[in-house]
Amino acid sequence: MHNAFIKPEYVEAMIKRGGKEHSVESLDGPTTALVVVDMQIYFMGEGQPSECPVAREIVPNVNRLATATRRAGGKVIWIQTHSGPESKEFWSAYYERVTPERGVQRVEGMTPGGSGFDLWPDLEVLDEDEIVPKTRYSAFMPSPSKLEAVLKEHNIDTVMITGVATCTCCESTARDAMMLNYRTMMISDGNAAPSDELHNNALNQFYLQFGDVQSTDEVIALLDQNIGAAAAE
Asked: Does domain 25-232 have CATH number 3.40.50.850?
């Protein structure tokens, strides 16, 4: 697991700007979605072209968050990258940045039915969840996206981002969520990156300018807190 931290000076800056360390101090379950980004074999399996070993370590936390979100009445959304042969044309800017061999690996692995396409088998994906495709780093691009439609359908105003990689697809999705006016969180121990440095750089910049960063335990406590309050009424 990553050694995740937010810089003290960033915490001080947030307190000065907003009057508190965390912009999210409560979660309303039915208007909250857990968005799990790219937890696919291509990014998690040993020997895969884009293997991120820490992604395997966060699986228990992602499953705990999914259970807590459902328990609170929220929605769990699994994002799955599709990069078939057509992606070489509609996202040529990406393929210009990789070798031809790497491009072939991505197309073959991330085509539906390809060796890296499926969600990681240890994830607890239920029939009531949504599986949403994406074709860029951000699940909101191109907009309007299937993810936007699902969030609107379920009256979601708060999204919690987990998955792989923190510094690429997760951060891109989280930033776009905030820019589309969703209250957005990234989960410090529910995201994975190739290194602690990349992980923390992404979380710190997101926390400073875009949304909140909290841990799995903190988020579950917020979700369960409102369940308890509702039951007491």
From this structure: yes
